[in-house]
Write a structure and sequence with these properties.
Elements (H helix, E strand, L loop, with lengths): L15 E8 L8 E4 L2 E4 L1 H11 L1 H4 L3 E8 L3 E8 L23 H9 L8 H18 L12 E5 L2 H13 L17
Antiparallel strand pairs: 1-5, 1-6, 2-3, 4-5
Length: about 190
């Protein structure tokens, strides 16, 4: 069984601002190069950017804030803002011939162990990664692959938001010192 890196007891369908990082497998630099402290996107990078910008069109109650594609990863802020802040549709009690001992909460707990919840950050990121991968393969980039999973952090304050936005904006200028830059990988 794989170990989760997500915050336990947090429903990732909840309203919030989420800082996410998605990396390519083995941190291969598919998306382009940093030239004069600016990211120059490759053809693959342009596809990844286009799909990133389309996330709100495919995920209800989702919008985007700052983001940057780097040679081998993406940093971005994903905002989930449901009008009622509920992460799930209401299930009504409907009489049936079958008796169920599971409460609604028990049902969701058991089901959440099987797969990410619809409308959750995990489903949004999985859908993004799948769409990009599918497009790449259709365009002849058969070697492309994502690192399994993604990193996330719940943004908890305005100060955190400003720091993360600055980090994202300045990421290309800091590439030469980045641990994600292949020239800095420890041997």
């Amino acid at each position: 069984m794989t170990k989760t890196i997500r915050l336990q007891n947090w429903d990732y369908r909840n309203n919030g601002w989420y800082f996410v990082t998605i990396c390519t497998r083995d941190r291969v630099c598919y998306f382009g190069d940093i030239v004069d402290c600016k990211m120059e996107l490759s053809a693959i990078g342009k596809i990844a950017r286009a799909f990133w910008q389309e996330i709100p069109q495919h995920s209800r109650y989702t919008s985007l804030d700052a983001y940057v594609l780097m040679p081998n990863h993406i940093h971005g802020i994903v905002i989930i803002d449901r009008p009622d802040n509920s992460g799930r549709d209401v299930i009504y009690n409907v009489p049936t011939e079958i008796s169920a001992d599971l409460t609604e909460d028990d049902f969701y707990q058991k089901m959440s162990k099987l797969s990410p919840k619809a409308g959750s950050l995990s489903v949004i990121m999985r859908s993004y990664k799948a769409a990009v991968s599918h497009s790449y393969r259709e365009n002849g980039y058969s070697n492309f692959a994502w690192q399994p999973r993604f990193y996330e952090s719940i943004i908890r304050s305005e100060r955190d938001l400003e720091n993360i936005q600055n980090y994202i904006v300045n990421n290309p200028a800091n590439w030469s010192e980045s641990k994600d830059n292949p020239i800095n990988f420890e041997m």
